[in-house]
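Appendix B. Worked example

We walk through a single record from start to finish. Start with the input: the chain for Extracellular solute-binding protein, Paenibacillus agri, length 455.
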Amino acid sequence: MKKRTVASSLLAAVFTLSLVLSGCSGGSNTNTKTATNTPDTSPTESAVNNTPKVEEKHDPVTLQIISWKDSYNDLYKMFEEKYPWITIEQIPVNSQPIMEIIASMEAAGTPADITEIDSDLISFEQNGLIEDLTPYIEKSEVFKTTKFPDGFFDTMIFNGKKLAIPMVDVPMWVLVNKDLLAKHGVNMPANDWTYDDFRSIAKKVTDSNAGEYGITTQAEIQMRMLSTKAIADGYAANLQYLNEDLTQSLLSTPDIMNEVKWFQELVTKDGSMQSNAVSEADGSVTKEFINGKTGFAIGGDWVLPNLKEKATFEWDVLPFPKGKVSQPGYTIYGPLSLLAGSKHKEEAFLWLEFQFSKEAQKWKIDQGANASVVDDELTAYYDQAEIWKGKNIEAVKLARENAKIQPGLTVPGWSDYNWNNILNDIIFGDRDINDIIPETETWNKKTLELRDSLK
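Next comes the structure step. The output line below is what the pipeline stores for this chain.
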């Protein structure tokens, strides 16, 4: 591959046509014509407008993108067709920490250009690995003319720097086994269903003698649904029980502790969801929605191919239920960053911009992702997407419209915040719910101290 600097890429040759004027007599610089009626040979407006433009010439560039995705080849080809001098080479992650991949490529003298992020953005920024995208975005016509959802960059900003763009909006829904519901005389719920509806239906379709339960024994039930319910009931401003400015966890407050008990009772009181131990004793059948033995589960775009190919029952999707004050959904923004060591930053940013083109957005909808752009044409495209044929498309649109974004990428000390494991142990195990209090207090103190140290 021919290597070149960013400066040389910006100086790609642009040829300007030269139109030679036939000389008038006397070589005068004035517009005066002689009496010999010498014809005016200056080009007409029509001739100038019809002159073919000379294409810009570019040196070939290969962009190296660190990614664990194995399904983006078609999107790469779409980009390469739009920018034929650019080739994309994916660097697979293969379970290796991305920071190690970046370091090894730079040490080899072949630095990567773009990376997905596998941990918090703060670590990448503090180690000087990623660019501040603010100046690129401010001069980008794509970002100037595109309408994004409220809070689009909020989880990607730290100390005033835009450290990444959301490459993909990963939506989540409540998966519904319509056949199991129908077996127990329950119709598909409406899109404005409530958490009380969810709990009531789960109990109705549970038949332990048949090995059938209302809710799948999966971590996502508490990971996604519990913190969403806390927002829906008005007890938290953000997912994972965080306050308005993402500085403190409210997990140990009495109202949210009661939300935890509500989910715990799905196992201990209602019996509509099995504990981990009981599920494993029964062969772990209820841990997978695809088995057809549970009524509800939480799923995102990653489950759709398997469901469409292998499910032997009629399934559909619903938005997350309504709470006491609202009906929020849940989404994850997959961050994509421009590496500071890239030798092709301008070309690399073209890939970031391309994510928000109509063709890329439609391709992502076809894969089950949300549109990341507010656009009537893209909203209407959900109705055309093959992946949603015969399904509850209005629920998909509503889930996108109401989605709350998972935080954490720019929250100091996020990896030390033990909200997930402790809640799994409480809801699906036998851990004491009161353990939440000291765990939360410890993290709240630590995150404030870290935040102060990073200012």
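Two observations about the output. The chain has two domains: 62-169+332-398, 171-331+406-444. Residues 171-331+406-444 form a domain with the D-Maltodextrin-Binding Protein; domain 2 fold (CATH 3.40.190.10).
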